[in-house]
Amino acid sequence: MEKIIIKGRERLHGSIAVSGAKNAALPIMTASLLTREKTLIHNIPDLRDVRTISDLLRIFGARVEDRGNGTFEIDGSSVHHHEAPYELVKTMRASCMVLGPLLARLGRAKVSLPGGCAIGERPINLHLKGLETLGAKIKLEHGYVIAEADRLKGGRIYFDIPTVTGTMNIMMAAVLAEGDTLLENAAKEPEIADLADMLRKMGAKIEGDGADTISITGVTSLHGVEHTIIPDRIETGTFIIAAAITGGEVKITNCIPDHSESLIMKLRESGLEIKPGKTTILIKGNGKIEGVDVETSPYPGFPTDMQAQIMSLLCIAKGTSIITETVFENRFMHVSELRRMGADIRIRGQSATVRGVGGLSGAPLMATDLRASASLLLAALAAEGESVISRVYHIDRGYERIEEKLSKLGANIRRVR
User: Fold this and answer.
1) Which residues are catalytic, by number?
2) Cα–Cα distance between 158 and 139 in angstroms, integer?
């Protein structure tokens, strides 16, 4: 079991580069199942979830080669197996996104019901409803989704709520369906647009990604492609808060500032000085953070994946802040650990009232999910004394060598067994 040890109160200075977006890399890697030709994908982050999806693709018969420096070659010419076993799917909810590509390519799929971070139910019923609209016959047996279709046919699909993975899954299924498909109330996240860009390069006909309605005209086959993953906007936001919470001055490179606009606007409201460039963001922390109210919502609103991180910052802000979580019903599991560091947080329903305190103190901490682990790491950077974070395998699911990156900025941080 590995742990991360942090001695806080070190101001961060320097430059830090953002890795490729996990939430774009995983679906784009599964999209390689849609073609019999090779795909070459760049800027894939070195993450636990990437290794899991690579193993899953190999089970289907794909040849996955890690060429180093974030480049993977995936050869789908030998894909023949259609079952995604529980042993792999249980560790990562994104595994359910193989449903659409397998069904479109092979006409059948057997995928274990997914697992992943325990931050709410996150059911896949919208995925299944969409696939049924495209003509798939679906049944649930012994914890598995079993889907079959001779060839999918286009249809009109309305999502009751915007779903990122649901939009991606149905989009990948529809590109090889017969006829036209219309996705209404679709999610608008940048990762969806990145997937759509790759699919278009492969020969898919997709319009409207990034808006509420996506239209797709099915084609009979797709070809190989070379594609580069967009930078990770959640890692970008985490580094912004790392600079702010330590009162440091940090330049973030290899990022897309527009993707973090809602976070930047909220942090400016709190008094932080932020200067975005074309592919950079400069943060100048002044140690004077004012409390702000935050409400999560689907993109382009404030991301639920940044709720835990901004809470850590608001723990040491001046005044009182209210954070309302509208996306997931169980995403305050980090609160009990922050309280152990001296934070003043009260939960009522889906809202957290955060009263700023003079400072936090180091403590033994336990991560419960991916973004909660990031919030504890940020709080530890600002705390007096030493913090020891256990269950760091959570943070390895979404952050590439985070302790190495922060150490180069001057953080007193190390990983131990």
Assistant:
1) 117
2) 21
